[in-house]
Design brief:
transmembrane, 75 residues, transmembrane helix, membrane
Length: 75
């Protein structure tokens, strides 16, 4: 979640800096769109990496194991 926040802030700041020569109003209006776009890209990258880890069965993934599901069903 913190990565998405950082991506949003950096995207907004970069967009503002790039569009500042076009006028301050244009830069202020476009900054949220740049932040949202970079957040979307970061979110898609995180989702891809998480599903890739789940497919490999890495221990860091949040997928429940068979032991967890059996214990929860038998209780």
């Amino acid at each position: 979640m913190a990565l998405l926040l950082v991506a949003a802030l950096l995207g907004g700041l970069m967009t503002f800096a790039v569009l500042l020569p076009s006028g301050i109003l244009t830069a202020l209006v476009a900054a949220p769109f740049g932040g949202s776009l970079l957040t979307l890209i970061a979110g898609l990258l995180l989702a891809y990496l998480r599903t890739k880890a789940e497919r490999r069965g890495e221990p860091g993934s949040n997928r429940p194991t068979a032991a967890h599901t059996i214990r929860s069903v038998t209780r």
